[in-house]
Design brief:
It contains 2 helices and 12 strands. By secondary structure, the chain is mainly beta.
Length: 247
């Protein structure tokens, strides 16, 4: 069904303008009493004009309120918020994926701190890679603004040997079809110390197109990550959300 083009409005004037009628200048709408709203009109009653106008006016206001939350510019008919909402979502570390094709021991393992299970990842190999798919956390049409990862390098390393952050996108072509190439949207690395720190990307304006594009982050341990083990403690995404979508 197409989005209607006619708007429903009723009794939008405050007062009647009907000279020389006796009701000229009187109010067009009167809210019914709480008792009448609870019981409704009886079969023997004739609804008062002002109450009837109030009812249709309120219905029209609610229809307009809801209609303003539909995206009509593109004709998609999808719900949007009155204004964009900024959101922050935590990415589950343990749902990330190994960045290698072999079935050997894990290159990143759940970390233990003080002998207690800790929801973190610890590198087990040099330059070990961990993949974090992001699509399931993002709405179609949202705009990614920041990606932040809390890490603690296991050693102070020279640049290019440090813990590496790469944010990728892959555009899939199902029409031709063609193999999509992974392109880097943003990159970062640790600061060369063993301090607990945040790496990632800020001030992004990446619009999400879930129907064609895959988004993920690859985190690579330092070149000595097998012996000087690197920790990943937390991961979050910030994005501007235009409103609920179908997917």
């Amino acid at each position: 069904m197409a989005v209607p083009t006619d708007e429903f409005t009723w009794a939008t004037d405050t007062n009647h303008t009907d000279p020389p009628e006796t009701w000229d200048g009187t109010v067009t709408k009167t809210a019914p009493s709480a008792g009448l709203q609870a019981t409704g009109y009886l079969p023997s009653q004739r609804p008062a004009v002002n109450t009837w106008n109030w009812l249709f006016n309120v219905v029209g206001q609610w229809i307009a309120f809801l209609a303003n939350r539909f995206e009509t510019v593109t004709g998609e008919g999808e719900l949007v918020y009155e204004s964009v909402v900024s959101r922050t979502v935590i990415v589950d570390l343990q749902s990330s994926q190994e960045g290698k094709l072999s079935n050997t021991a894990l290159s990143w393992s759940p970390s233990l701190v003080g002998g207690t299970p800790y929801h973190a990842l610890l590198s087990q190999e040099n330059s070990a890679v961990r993949i974090f798919p992001l699509n399931s956390y993002l709405r179609h049409g949202c705009v990614i603004t920041d990606i932040e990862v809390i890490v603690q390098p296991g050693a102070a390393r020279a640049t290019t040997n440090r813990v590496q952050f790469d944010f990728y996108q892959v555009v899939h072509d199902f029409v031709t079809p063609a193999i999509g190439a992974a392109t880097i949207v943003a990159t970062d690395e640790d600061d060369g110390t063993t301090n607990t720190q945040v790496i990632g990307a800020s001030s992004l304006t990446k619009s999400v197109v879930r129907g064609t594009t895959e988004y993920y982050v690859a985190l690579r341990a330092g070149n000595t990550g097998g012996t000087n083990k690197d920790d990943i403690f937390g991961f979050r995404i910030k994005f501007n959300d235009p409103g609920p979508r179908n997917f």
